[in-house]
Amino acid sequence: MTDFAQLLNPEQFAAATAGEGPLLVLAAAGTGKTRTLVHRVAYLIEQGEDPSRILLLTFTNRAAREMRERAQKLCGDAVSAIWSGTFHSICARLLRRYGGKIGFQPDFQILDEDDQKKLIGEIIKSSVPNPKEFPKKEIIAKIISESANEGKRVEDIASRWQTKTGGIDPEAIGSIAGKYRARKLELGAMDFDDLLVYGLKLLKTQQGVRELLQEHFRHVLVDEYQDTNGLQAEFTDILAEKWRNIMAVGDDFQCIYTWRGAQIENIMDFPRRWQGCRIIKLERNYRSVPGILDVANVVMKDAPGQFEKRLRAFRPKSGDKPWKCVCYDGKAQAQEILRLVREFLDLGYRYNDMAVLYRSHFHSIDVQMAFARLHVPHRITSGVGVFEQLHTKDVLAYLRLLVNPRDELSFMRLMGMLPGVGEKSAKKYWDKLGGMFDGRRQSDRDSLAGILGTKAKPVWEQIASAFARAGDHLERGETGKAVEDFCEYFYANHLHREFEGEEADDRLDDIKELAAQIAASDTGLEGFLTDVALMTNLDMRRNDPEADRVTLSTVHQAKGMEWPVVFVPWLTESMFPSQKAAEEGRMDEERRLFYVAVTRAKDHLYLFSPTIRKNPDGGMYPVNPSMFATEIPDSLVNRRRVQMSSMDYAGGGGLRGYSRPSRPPAQPLWKVTWRR
Fold it and tell me: How far is CA 427 from CA 265, 452, 625, in A?
């Protein structure tokens, strides 16, 4: 028999060996959530519980697999009989077995995201008079998904989207959604959202199946409970209704996915929904040094409407306090991060030990460019690199054609954005123009307009307006204004046709930052474009998962991860917290997001607040530090003010103004087994 008291700390032990009845385990960051769940499974099996009557629900297949493997080491092959997996996979398993009760054959097809979009696209083409003017299939898919997860009519969700993006006709979208549902039924297919919808419908409408499953599952364990949506919470509530042995494990401080359906109310209301619920708090942190935890505790100290928790350090007091670094601008910030990376390498850390975590993808542009120029190996886990993104490539194609009228590839890309223009048509236009197009010349613009089709001409007029002004901008060195015109006359509307409102706005933020980079470039537009071409040639090798590389990631993507060294850039107002979140009253979630960023760091944490932001036109304006940075007392951090501007950085040299960071610990003290 396993000696659980020897393997777990007192709070973990209490959770893993709890008796029957509802249990809420509030597992703060780095406190051994997975360890506790694994030992709970092992404990139940060792107590004689039939493994097949244990249901373990997770949000990723990787998490389910890791828990099964770790539990197997404790209690052998018996663990293979437990029901474990994601909500979607468990619903699929139940529907394969009992779906006939609600009209589905056991061999129903599961549509992946590409299948879903393809099917919706086909319906749009066959149903809408002008498909090009209709919202894109990606937008329709998101509206349908939100409708399913929120249990609301498609028309109601579409009406909400009218405030995000133009061209939304709720009734027309409702009609497309109806045809999509009918087509899925014809095919005997479900998409991912349907698995949850029909899994819950099975429980709610089929009394015999519901009572059978309620009788069968004596224990229901749910991981990352703060990330559940309404369907998932109701699904688990129903399954656990008979035996009341539901164990929800999560952390309200780390609820950062409300934008994709997570409902923090599920975890906050859990004790009310489950009368007699016992609450156990895991607060002993094994990940971070005490100084980092002091900052994390301050971040959430006065957060309203949360369960009170305080991280307590297991690791001994060692190393530096976290650093608050005030620097001139984004370039100076990137250079300072670069210097620190070199210093930590000298101390014996690897690139893999370091991460740059940011609120939004465009915050990383300076760092990406600095790393690329000096060949610092890095991987981008928050999406593709800035110069690999489609919207960046579109804008660069426009600029390249301005610089080089004989750039056929850029011309072809630009023409591909016009309605009714395919690759063959674009090639035909290029040949008719004699293999050259100078958009700054009125004659070239008129010649192209004369050969375009009826659908393309009105849109071309928008692009032509940007080209007409571009010559003067380039002569005055105002490249940023040329980009602004391209977006204002054409590309902003194009993005809002292609993507839902928030995603389109995020891409426009990327482009504004790109324009600011070009405006501040020492080598001018042509030199900048050359640098970009050289950088992107390394892209194929950069994301090798086995390579030793610095991680660049949004905080959202970094949840569940950890690194010895973490840098958080752009802790300034309107950047982190984001301006949009502030305008929409979502500051509580921004605070939780900052907490997640801080608690990813194990040994060293650096918080950066530039004082200047660059405009796309080359100008600049002052910015204030983030409220999250100013709330941290000076007694908890070291302070470093970088007096120089980005222009003053040249070559190497040691760090100035920092105490020398400590070397990596000889052994991972935070993983030493707790002895009771």
Answer: 56, 12, 51
Tens-place pLDDT, residues 196-220: 999 999 999 999 999 999 999 999 9
Assess contact for 217 and 55: CB atoms under 8 A.
yes
Confidence of residue 5 (pLDDT cuts 50, 70, 90): very high
Q: Could you tell me the two tokens for 208?
A: 């015999």
SS (H, E, C) 496-537: HHHCCHHHHHHHHHHHHHHHHHHHCCCCHHHHHHHHHHHHHC
SS (H, E, C) 643-668: CCCHHHCCCCCCCCCCCCCCCCCCCC
Q: Looking at 107-121, 474-488, 618-632, which range is the least confident one?
A: 474-488
Report the C-alpha gap between 268 and 273 in whole angstroms: 10
Structure tokens at 330: 């984004």
Query: At 557, which helix (H) or strand (E)?
Result: helix 555-558
**What's the pLDDT at 647?**
46
| Token duo for residue 352 | 């893999």
Structure-model confidence comparison of residues 479 and 154, the more confident one: 154
Amino acid occupying residue 75: C
Q: Read off φ and ψ for residue 174, nearest 5 degrees.
A: -60, -35
Residue bearing the bigger pLDDT, 501 or 561 = 561
- Percent of the chain scoring above 90 in pLDDT: 54
Cα distance between residue 449 and residue 453, in whole Å? 9
At residue 500, the pLDDT reads 67
3-state helix, strand, coil in the chain (%, to 5): 55, 10, 30
pLDDT tops 90 at residue 643: no
Could you give the residue numbers annotated as active site? Answer: 33-34, 223-224, 254, 600
Residue 98's Cβ-count burial label (10 Å; 0-12, 13-18, 19+) is buried
Give 37's contacts (C-beta < 8 A, 6+ positions apart).
56, 67, 221, 223, 249
C-alpha separations of 72 from 7, 13, 14, 67 in Å: 16, 19, 21, 8
Of 4, 6, 48, 34, give the one whose Cα is nearest residue 221.
34
Q: Residue 25: what are its φ and ψ, rounded to 5°?
A: -105, 110
Q: Is residue 34 within 8 Å of 56, Cβ to Cβ? A: no
**Closest alpha carbon to 93 in 188, 199, 9, 225:** 199
- CA dist 275 and 560 (Å) reads 30
Task: Examine residue 577 and say whether the peptide bond preceding it is cis (omega within 30 degrees of 0).
Answer: yes
Residues 438, 404: Cα–Cα separation, whole Å = 8
Residue 617's contacts (CB-CB under 8 Å, 6 or more residues apart) are: 478, 480, 481, 484, 519
Does position 652 have pLDDT exceeding 60, yes or no? no
DSSP state, residue 489: I
> What percentage of the chain carries pLDDT values higher than 70?
90
Pairing of strands 620-622, 612-614: antiparallel
Nearest to 286 by CA among 556, 666, 12, 664: 12
Using CA atoms, how far residue 317 sits from 289, 292, 465, 603, 666, in Å, is: 6, 10, 62, 11, 15
Separation between Cα atoms, residue 570 and residue 585, nearest integer Å: 20
- For residue 563, pLDDT beyond 80: yes
What tokens does 357 get? Answer: 């975590």
Of 240, 320, 283, 324, the C-alpha closest to 56 is 240
CB 96 within 8 A of CB 177: no
C-alpha closest to that of 479 among 442, 508, 522: 522
Structure tokens at 89: 């996979």
User: How far is it, in rounded angstroms, from Cα 167 to Cα 494?
Assistant: 12
Sign of CA dihedral 581, 586, 589, 594: positive
